[in-house]
TrEMBL record:
CDD domains: HTH_XRE
PROSITE patterns (UniProt xref): HTH_CROC1
Domain of life: Archaea
Protein name: HTH cro/C1-type domain-containing protein
One protein family per Pfam: ThiN
Single Gene Ontology MF annotation: DNA binding
InterPro entries named among the record's database cross-references: Aldolase_II/adducin_N_sf (IPR036409), Cro/C1-type_HTH (IPR001387), Lambda_DNA-bd_dom_sf (IPR010982), ThiN (IPR019293)
Species of origin: Natronoarchaeum philippinense
Amino acid sequence: MRFIEEIVVDEFLPTFRSMLAEELRERGLTQNEVADVLGISQSAVSKYVHGDVSRNERLLTDERVVELVEEIADGLASGDMRPVQGLVEAEVLVRRLEDGDVLAKLHEDAVPELADHEATISVHDPDNELRSAERVLTALRRGLRKIETTSGFAGLIPNVGSNLVACLPGAAGVDDVAGVPGRIFDVKGRATIPGDPEFGVSEHVASVLLAARNGGSDARAAVNLRYDPEIVEALAAAGYDAVEFDADAEVDDAVGDAVDATPEPTVLYQTGGFGVEPIVYVLGEDVEAVVEAIRTLV
């Protein structure tokens, strides 16, 4: 009696780890850094990199395995992805490969009697909350790195500071929206990001994004910029639908009415109110779309 988990340990794990160790070394990480990221010893890394482990040819050449190894290696090497997301993504792939796929076939090879049965085992949900949250955080890190190095972005930051936010697919409140703790500020002409993105740290921009979604928008990300008629005009000229909302009204009502008035607006703005700084909000289907909009302005 041999369990499929044994196939994972004996066939998938050494193959996957050795591929990932090789890719990380090619991206400039030292053996010590690779060992820390993978949670293994330096001697194990050395064995993986030098081919001193048995690797399964079917897994070694599987396009999905190859693509995931490269994606995780890119993310870990750049710092955009935390090891926990790499683990979650690998776990999801393992579950998929176990479910009537290559790992199931390898299991059948090891236990031929299984081939007589057509039933498969339901395994982990690939759309679980942890995976979704880690993907949101990874997208934000990438977006923040891009705007941090975008010349001229600092000039778009309002006095209250900017925030780049993104939400979970079924976001119901600010705790489901991730952003920069403390916001992004202009410090001597440079956009300064005080910390790694977290969930539940953006009350203001998150509220606008949630209000837009409650009004029917499919937006999953947003950023706030300083208001200037020329900024609104530039975004409109670039093809983004812009609509104004009332700064003195409740956010849910004002933003909801604005979204209802213009099908899928990507730019919302208010020109100020009593004690309220005028602000432009750029919405997008994802962080990448919002960053692309920002780059049309600089």
